Amino acid sequence: MAWDNVLLEKDGVVGVVTVNRPKALNALNGDTLTEIGLAFDEVAKDDEIKVVILTGAGDKAFVAGADILSMQKMTPMESKAFSLLGQQVMSKIETFQKPVIAAINGFTLGGGCELAMCCDIRIATPKSMFGQPEVGLGIIPGFAGTQRLPRLIGKGRAKELIFSAANINAEEAYRIGLINKVVEEDQLMAEAKKMAGKIASKGQIAVRLAKEAINEGMEMDLDKAMIHEADLFGLCFSTEEQREGMTAFIEKRPAKFTGK
Ligand code: CAA
Questions:
Q1: Is the pLDDT at 259 greater than 90, yes or no?
Q2: In a domain? residue 245
Q3: Which CATH number is 193's domain given?
């Protein structure tokens, strides 16, 4: 499926969502944000898709930020609405019921870094560059970067990156935990699909509940988060996946999960 700025393709159990504005380094204008949301809505309806890969078209950028041309003349109310739209799309991805892997090849700046951060796992190529350049434009990150970056890499490093507007390379991004893995450019999609395949072979309800436990638990105090985990752990025992997974272990055979 295709919209003006976003593509959705399917490769077996993997859905690939591509931000497709390579001439503007895949910068996020309002239409592109809306279309990313629509693509994820389509993926949600497709039971065959178990894992999503989010990537950027072309060989220069994942996403080089929110679209500066479209923001230049915005009023305060328009820019607030733009920020809320971006935040909604990022939250939709973060809480999406299927795991989302960002496959990153190039500039991942501002809104692009924010988009990558709402994915569950980030794989990048050595030439990729990361940063939150907003203060250099006289603004702050507006798609939840001031919130997700400190949660991901810690407050001190997040402040350094945001206040300095400095770009960092993939090696440094890996070192500080902003990305999970660095792979050669010609291996990027293969690696992302390999990881997607590995996840897709497991119990899908269990993966979904693990995502929920991590995401929601991180926003709670530890005692409440552990009770939440115990509730979700208990819920696993209502699934066929739990019966199949444990029976398969005891029978010394691979589990055949059905997503039920
Ligand atoms: N918005 C709109 N257009 C953009 C863009 C952006 N964020 N980033 C790149 N482009 C466009 C350029 O204007 C250029 O278009 P033209 O060919 O029509 O001139 C095209 O993409 C190619 O870009 P460059 O010629 O600049 O390519 P380069 O290789 O010389 O530089 C770059 C690459 C360092 C990424 C540079 O393009 C750049 O600095 N981009 C802006 C990065 C940025 O500041 N992002 C943050 C935006 S603010 C934000 O995201 C706010 C938020 O949190 C919501």
A1: no
A2: yes
A3: 3.90.226.10
